[in-house]
Amino acid sequence: MKTIIEPFRIKTVEPIRMTTRDERKRLLHEAHYNLFALHSDDVLIDLLTDSGTSAMSAEQWAAIMRGDESYAGSPSFARFEAAVKNLMPFAHVIPTHQGRAAEAILFHLIGGPGRKIPSNTHFDTTRGNIEATGAEAVDLVIAEGRDPSAEHPFKGNMDLAALETFLRENADAVPCVMLTITNNAGGGQPASLENIRGVAALARAFGKPFIIDGCRFAENAWFVKQREPGQRARKIVDIVRDMFAEADGMTMSAKKDAFANIGGWLALNDDALAREARTRLIQTEGFPTYGGLAGRDLDAIAQGLKEIVDEDYLAYRVRTNEYIAERLDALGAPRVRPVGGHAVFVDARAFLPHIPPLAYPGQALACALYEYGGVRSCEIGTLMFGRQPDGSEKPAAMDLVRLAMPRRVYTQSHADYVVETFAEIASVKNRLRGLRIVEAPPALRHFTAKLAPL
Ligand code: F0G
């Protein structure tokens, strides 16, 4: 059969409250043209993020009831730890309340002034946690990974030559080498198994631990299976195990590829570092057998990890994004190529060439998606990155709008509706106006800035 169906039936539903365009115009005005300020029940299709927004399965809800809330030594922790180690064979698994807490603990221990940490591209919380210790976060993704229109099967790959030069010149300052899979900031693009092995070999040659940010590990494994020579006949679980067998540790947000609404972990092989991490965990998160989570959350993650490596699910997952992307291509809406694992990234600067970067074309498009269709997306461009340390404004490298797909939440007709919203906008796009910032904090301004149309 040609149609890739949603490989699940729906047992519990959440109603979507319908709104009119006039109502949304008013709500947008009241939210000062910042979609983070909207109430989510005023949103029809919420593509703000794929993080923590998954639909849990019946088995996950059953696991929640099984959750044991003992302060120490909970069997929920044992199930969680076994589920992680089944896929990622690290010696120590340390639960945290979400991914950035794992990052904060790790970089508290190995960051600090003068240190430099290379990765393909650090996600913003990773970068933020590294920089908060005074260390420097360095992005060394391959050149194709910086070009939205370049077709390449593994645009999340590390530039191995650049990494080698970097390590040769800075070895003393480097406490670890990182790799984000998939590379969220670069469009949800995967790294190949070959590249993961290449990064691991370089890290080993320079005596540095190799840490994977594994938030979307199953999507990465799916792309390896589909796109890497010799991998097509292999099982996803085996590819996942091969990816992590190369590493000395990982940070994880269970809000992505573990189907959980909250949670994360830090995993390490180094006994001494793990001991320090647990000490820090007790100070900041909680006892090492719950780490900022309830026992029931640990059980939901344990079950989610069994479900996420299902190949029918992954086929449907990636197909949803391809389906939207193919239809956007037909409308002439430029996008990051190839399609990412968790999102479609639209090139707003190319779609709205009459709006200059400093009038925030990404935000203009995101606001139009909400006004015309009630679709909430996220600007990743000059509003997010344009403010310079000296307070001046500079266009970001790209002005993108991310349509992030929550896991197992929306159906094909929801996808059709999103495309139809784009079609509406395409027919009036020359009339869309840019925006100006009325009020904004100096850091992470996109979350709370107030804007007005020009
Ligand atoms: N690493 C990557 C690659 C991420 O995408 C995220 C979160 C984190 C780390 C942090 O995890 O949210 O559990 O603390 N990304 C979300 C997003 C917020 O919308 O892309 P967290």
List unreliable stretches of 5+ residues: none
**Number of DSSP-assigned strands:** 14
Order of neighbouring strands in the sheet with most strands: 2-8-7-6-5
Mean pLDDT: 96
H/E element order: HEHHEHEHEHEHEHHEEHHHEHHEEHEHEE
Structural class: alpha/beta
Known CATH architecture of the largest domain: 3-Layer(aba) Sandwich
If helices are DSSP runs of H or I spanning 4 or more residues, what is the number of helices? 16
Tell me which ligands are bound.
Answer: ligand F0G
Q: Kindly estimate the percentage of residues that lie in beta strands according to DSSP.
A: 5-15%
How many domain units? 2
For the biggest sheet, the summary is: 5 strands, mixed
Care to describe what's here?
The chain has 454 residues and is an alpha/beta fold. It folds into 2 domains: 21-50 and 311-453, Aspartate Aminotransferase, domain 1 (Alpha-Beta Complex), CATH 3.90.1150; 59-307, Aspartate Aminotransferase, domain 2, CATH 3.40.640. Helix content is 41%, strand content 13%. It has helices spanning 21-30, 58-66, 75-87, 99-110, 124-132, 160-170, 193-205, 217-227, 236-245, 271-284, 295-308, 311-330, 348-351, 361-373, 382-385, 412-428, and strands at 45-46, 92-96, 116-119, 136-139, 177-180, 210-213, 249-253, 264-268, 343-347, 375-376, 378-380, 400-404, 435-439, 450-453. α7 (193-205) links the parallel β5 (177-180) and β6. α1 (21-30) crosses α14, α4 runs parallel beside α5 and α12 (311-330) packs parallel to α16 (412-428). It binds ligand F0G. Ligand F0G is lined by residues 49, 51, 98-100, 123, 125-126, 180, 184, 213, 215, 253, 255, 264.
